[in-house]
Amino acid sequence: MEVLKEKVEEEEEAEREEAAVRAERGEKVVRPMEVRREEAPMTQEMLRDLEKKLSDIEMAIPEKLSTFTKDTIDTSKLPLSYQSNTLKEEHLLQVADSFSRQYSHLCPDRVPLFLHPLNECEVPKFVSTTIRPTLMPYPELYNWDSCAQFVSDFLSMVPLPDPLKPVVQEEEKVPPKKYAIKPPRDLTSRFQQEQETKKQEEIKAEEERQLREEEERLLDVEKAKTDPLHGLRVHSWVLVLSGKREVPESFFIDPFTARSYSTQDDHFLGIESLWNHKNYWVNMQDCWNCCKDLVFDLGDPVRWEYLLLGTEKSHLSLTEEEEDGLNDDDDVENLGKEDEDKSFDMPPSWVEQIEISPEAFETRCPNGKKVIQYKRAKLEKWAPYLNSNGLVCRLTTYEDLECTKTLEIKEWFQNREDMLELKHIDKSTGLNVDYFKPGHPQALRVHSYKSMQPETDRIMEFYDRARVDGLVKREETSKTMTEYYRGRSDFLSYRHVSFGDRVKKLSLNSAESNPRPIVKITERFARNPEQPADEDVAERVFLISEERIQLRYHCRDDHITASKREFLRRSEVDHKGNKIVMTPDMCISFEVEPMEHTKKLLYQYEAMMKLKNEEKLSRHQAWEEEEHRLTISIYDTKRNEKSKEYREAMERVMHEEHLRQGGGQLDYLAPFLAQLPPSEKMTRWQAMRVKDECLSDFKQRLIDKANLIQARFEKETQELQKKQQWYQENQVTLTVKDEDLYLSYCSQAMFRIRILEQRLNRHKELAPLKYLALEEKLYKDPRLVEFMKVFV
């Protein structure tokens, strides 16, 4: 105990020196705890005087502290705990009133404490009892950042027009009376009216000019302008203390923005009080340096005055020397007895347990949308899947304070099949930039454009490692297209395509039916170390309109010039259909070191044919903008249409299987027994006739099914032969696209033919077995068994 007394004396001496320094600066220091300690022992008369003074103090409690009214909430449906207080809650309110009177007496210069505001039913409730810790079944709420973001989405701050004045209701306009005296006739001059109109227009123009100048002046002095309400506003926020759940240091959370701030931040000027669901603490430290010098040790009664004594609170931080000095067991026992005598447990919370349905948790904002207005900016939020295009957030920045001139727009998306994440729209330049996450069908990463119309300027960047062709970047204009590659096996690194003017066609108006003609294709290749430089192509140019192909090879290290070769590309047949033979004038070459095999026509012919195939593959291929679709989790049974269709299909299959099983029990002799007279008993001859008719009918059905399969097989075979004949006749003039379509058709046709052939063979194998099985059933049928004994 002596060590504690020495510690207290040292702190008091330090506070006196600090107060002396502040007194020299002219600052006023309030030290209620020191005054309370230095007072002499109070007599009975002094206690009676103090009690009288405390009873005379009236607490200024606002009449309406809650924004809820009877018009917004039906209080009759609320639980009984909302409409009244228990005896323990009444006792707690009395303790809070006593504590508030003592605080006002000791600290008259500080604002009244926020202890027991009115709830929805206008019943005073202690602030700590409004908190009810609840564990929610959503993992997103286990961390402070996602939990704060979830709460901030539900809160909407509506500021008053004047923070220091209440809202003034406008006067109601009196409706015009039915019977009234007519106004006198207007005898003013039209010329004077026109002159007055011109004068008003000039005045208006002058006012607009002055308004623009005033806005410019305000922009200049806006940064230097001081806030008249600085330090007068009162705000509540969340304090997270260090220690538990591996929190390294204490920090603040703004509930409206979900942003975290350090306790050293200049935005927080001071703290009046703290509370949780267990206790209430009043800050007794000086906030002259904002919250930077505050010590958040709630177990220190010198710095934090607590309301309830017996509740759990953070222990006082002690050094090792102080802990060694606490060895007096008697004093500890006495302190424990005093605490037991003065302890008071916090009543249970009067609010209901929070229940958040999955739909409400996913909706987040009220009605799924929230708008936050900032200075020269507006933030809009939507719940996931609320917009068909996956839009969840939009930030719009403006140029003026009235928010009429849009400067730029940023939009964030979620659950998009094309993996679009962010869209940036610059209104000043008209440039749109789309950013995609990995997973786009074409591995698109960034898309910059001004218009989505075809044949407009655009730049596309790709995830080259996710693409087979290694495309890194594509730049398109109305006349050209440039592509950059990386990491290709053929060492292609650059491709430039030039387009000509589109030929006008009256019957075809779309860009797809009338594509732009390609004039020139330029391709550049990186050095392939496995090939000689004279055979490794560095640049390849296809002059489509001139029917020429130019090649430039890589230059050797010991040479200053590179080999070149030019081919005159002609059609393979002339106008009469005769095949054209390769001639020496169709290839012009310049070789640094000529070789024998390169001079042969066969080598040149094979090179030209290979270049023709490469030219077909180098054609421009562009994709259209697909419809915006959203990705849905397989566990989302409400929105997953594929899962829903699969479930319905499974239910339909089970229903059909059930009907099929029931159909197996149908009477296969019923159609034939219905032809017999109902009143007569069946004879042997009639039984034989029914059996024969049933077997013949089943046999005919088997034959019809076989004929149907055979007819479909022959039809598919004939169509495939016709297609093959068409291909043989037009093989020379077909394009790459036509060849791909032909090969795809052949593959599908062969698949159908094989299936039909297998079905036909299987039917031929099973048909006799089915016939014999039916015949055996007829012999064992209880209605025919008596007449069939002779034949068994």
Please explain how this structure is put together:
Helix 15 runs antiparallel to helix 16 (about 735-780). Residues about 1-10, about 25-40, about 60-70, about 165-170, about 315-330, about 335-340 and about 620-625 have low confidence and may be disordered. It contains 17 helices and 22 strands. By secondary structure, it is of the alpha+beta class. It has helices at about 1-25, 30-40, 45-55, 80-85, 85-105, 145-155, 190-220, 320-325, 330-340, 360-365, 595-600, 600-615, 640-665, 670-675, 685-730, 735-780, 785-790, and strands at about 240, 250-255, 260, 275, 280-285, 305, 370-375, 375-380, 390-400, 405-415, 420-425, 430-435, 445-450, 460, 470-475, 480-485, 490-500, 520-525, 535-545, 550-555, 565-570, 585-590. Strand 2 and strand 3 (about 260) form a beta hairpin. The strands form 3 sheets. It has a 16-stranded antiparallel beta sheet with strand order 7-8-9-10-11-12-13-14-15-16-17-18-19-20-21-22, with helices on one face. It has a 3-stranded antiparallel beta sheet with strand order 1-2-3, with no helix packed on it. Strands 4-5-6 form a 3-stranded antiparallel beta sheet, with no helix packed on it. It holds the Pfam family CEPT76_peptidase. This is Dynein regulatory complex subunit 7. Keywords: Cytoplasm, Cytoskeleton.
